[in-house]
Design goal:
Blueprint lengths: L2 H22 L5 E5 L5 H8 L3 E6 L2 H10 L5 E4 L11 E6 L8 H14 E12 L1 H6 L4 E3 L4 E7 L4 E8 L2 E11 L3 H10 L3 E7 L2 E3 L4 E3 L9 E7 L1
Parallel strand pairs: 1-2, 1-4, 2-3, 4-5
Antiparallel strand pairs: 5-13, 6-7, 7-8, 8-9, 10-13, 11-12
């Protein structure tokens, strides 16, 4: 990996770790990161002394995480809708992925998150903002070997992210996430026995200038983070 790219990634990870500590707002020792991917955040948190557990569905990502992580991190492969955990945590995090299924799926997951939390602990969950994704629907991007287009399913309030090879548009793949207003996610959390303690707006991309702003208003951000407690 290019040293400049590696330095930039490490700097961004350090910023994420600082944000998590600030948003939790008190000392904590254990954290469960679900949808953890290759475990970059977990390794950064572990270097700051947090006892990390990660949960990821894709076996290839889990294998990679295990190959580059030390034994201080507990790395689990499984489905967060069904896996049984015998531990509770000071913090549960779900970064950039909430909304994969429908509302019933999200409610089920929130109830599971509640069960994984110790008393007086919290979860940090990134929520996609419908206002932003409606606004940029139709935005296209071209890369060396791929093209991408954002869309929005108004009827189901889902952002659509479609990728295809320029020479094989018939093989396009689309993933989507349910977007929630603050009012909608608050209601869903209440049904799960959780209460939103704080809301942290994220960033947004200006596609006219191709500039990313890391912190914008709640009405402008592509996603916002909620801090929830039992």
């Amino acid at each position: 990996m290019d040293s400049q790219i590696e330095f930039k990634m490490e700097k961004e990870l350090a910023t994420q770790v600082d944000e998590i500590h600030e948003q939790v707002g008190k000392l904590f020792t254990s954290m469960l990161d679900i949808g953890a991917g290759s475990g970059m955040l977990a390794r950064a948190m572990s270097r700051r002394g947090t006892q990390m557990t990660t949960l990821e569905l894709v076996p290839e990502l889990v294998d990679y995480a295990r190959s580059i992580s030390d034994n201080s991190i507990t790395i689990l492969c499984g489905d967060f809708y069904t896996i049984e955990l015998d531990q509770q945590f000071d913090v549960v995090s779900y970064m950039d992925g909430f909304g994969v299924g429908d509302d019933i799926d999200q409610l089920h997951l929130l109830k599971r998150i509640s069960g994984w939390l110790k008393d007086d602990s919290c979860a940090l969950i990134d929520i996609y903002n419908p206002v932003y994704w409606r606004k940029i629907s139709g935005q296209k991007m071209r890369f060396d070997k791929a093209e991408r287009e954002y869309g929005y399913d108004v009827d189901n309030e889902r952002m659509l992210d479609t990728w295809w090879h320029p020479e094989q548009p018939e093989n396009a793949l689309t993933q989507s996430l349910r977007c929630y207003t603050v009012e909608e996610i608050s209601k869903l959390c209440e049904e799960a026995g959780l209460k939103i303690e704080a809301i942290f707006p994220g960033g947004a991309m200006d596609y006219d200038e191709w500039v990313y702003s890391p912190l914008v208003s709640l009405n402008e951000c592509l996603s916002y983070r909620i801090k929830v407690k039992k």
